[in-house]
Amino acid sequence: MIYSMTGYGKSVILFQDRKICVEIRSLNGKSMDLSTRMAPQFKSREMEVRTLVTTALERGKVDFSLWVEQGEKPETPSINVPVMQTYAQQMRDASKETGVALPDNMFEVLMRMPDVVARKEIYDVSDEEWTVVLEGVKAAIAELLDFRRQEGEALAAKFRDKINNISSLLRSIEPYEKERVEKISTRITDSLEKLAGVEYDRNRLEQELIFYIEKLDVNEEKQRLTNHLNYFVETMDGERGQGKKLGFIAQEMGREINTLGSKSNHAEMQNIVVKMKDELEQIKEQVLNVM
263-291 pLDDT, tens per residue? Predict the structure, then answer.
């Protein structure tokens, strides 16, 4: 069965006083294009995450996010009062020596000075915590894969509908084929008879007509197109990860339909070919989303 490359997965892990969130989004892409955003304390584990995500998702433009939300009692940054006092004294001394007045918003200026606000240090991630986080990553991947599977089922239904439409249109060509041959023969014969005083070999004319009509025969194109339609469905029902192959089959279908159009030489047949091209174009657009 086919899988879509579009998907979304999220998981939330509770560990001690922290809530760790994992979120993965994927869109269609020719290959794996993975972008990761991870909380600083998990950066050392990035390669492990990338390997896990790449192996599971195979293709697509993937955005991976891992962040931490503190619990009810988050550690807040603290003001380093001794450092602030030192800065304040230096500013007062500089004001006296230079004659420059102290700023009215001196407190705001001091708060922006280096090291006045003590930043919380990044904590070390224990093996126990990482094991829990890794399970959350796997859960988010599993949810995204399930999303892809559901989207793939919807795509498969659309493809079957379009393939059936093309098959039906292909069968509708048959009644016009005999009519087309008769019209061509009649048109050429009538044109020759209008040429007064011109004699021609009727046997040679029949031979040339047969040769001309054989060049316009579309039975081979019809058979090849039918084979491509069947192969498309077989591939779609096979193993996942067949998006590129389905794209190649759709290209071959297009070649046969184009040849049908160039050989038609009949208004109704050409109208049918246009409808087939429209159905195929919709297949080609959606194939880009298949993994």
Answer: 877 788 889 999 999 999 999 999 999 98
Q: Are 69 and 18 in contact (CB under 8 A)?
A: yes
Q: Is 67 helix (H, G, I), strand (E, B) or coil?
A: strand
Residue type, 164: N
Q: Which of 166, 100, 126 is nearest to 41 (CA)?
A: 126
**Which residues, 6+ apart, have CB-to-CB distance to 212 below 8 Å?**
184
Residue with tokens 């989303």: 289
Ordered structural domains, the chain, with CATH: 7-73+126-148 (3.30.230), 78-118 (no CATH), 153-287 (no CATH)
- Residue 41 is given by DSSP the state G
pLDDT in tens, 132-182: 999 999 999 999 999 999 999 999 999 999 999 999 999 998 888 777 766
How big is the CA angle at 135 (ends 134 and 137), to the nearest 5 degrees? 65
Beta strands in 77-189 (DSSP E): 78-79, 117-118
Q: Long-range contacts: 97-103, Cβ < 8 Å, 24+?
A: none
